[in-house]
Amino acid sequence: MDYILDNVGEWKDRLVNNSVKSFTEMTAQRWIRIIVIVGGYLLVRPYVLKAAANRQKRQLDKEAEELGLEPSAEPNANALRGGGKRSKAVEEEAKSVDGVSKTKTRQRKTQESNKEAE
User: Where is the composition biased (Basic and acidic residues) (predicted)?
Assistant: First the structure.
């Protein structure tokens, strides 16, 4: 057990020593190199991720076609809400009476009856 603790202490000392030395001995050329590498990564990363997503989508579409399924399509808002079809009951309730919907009329009558009850 003592051997493991000695190794962990030595690793910590080496890590601290190497970290401090690497920052104190940095030249302008090394700083520029680090900035170029990090900046290049930040600029290229979105394009690489988009290309990977497109490749994965093509692969999934190909597998779906082989299995006889329809290829994946982007979901639209109507599909998420139930296909965009409304039942007749909903449509009839939504029809307006003299420019005011039934819901608003019902709400106004309720408020008037509440005022009369007071």
Answer: 109-118
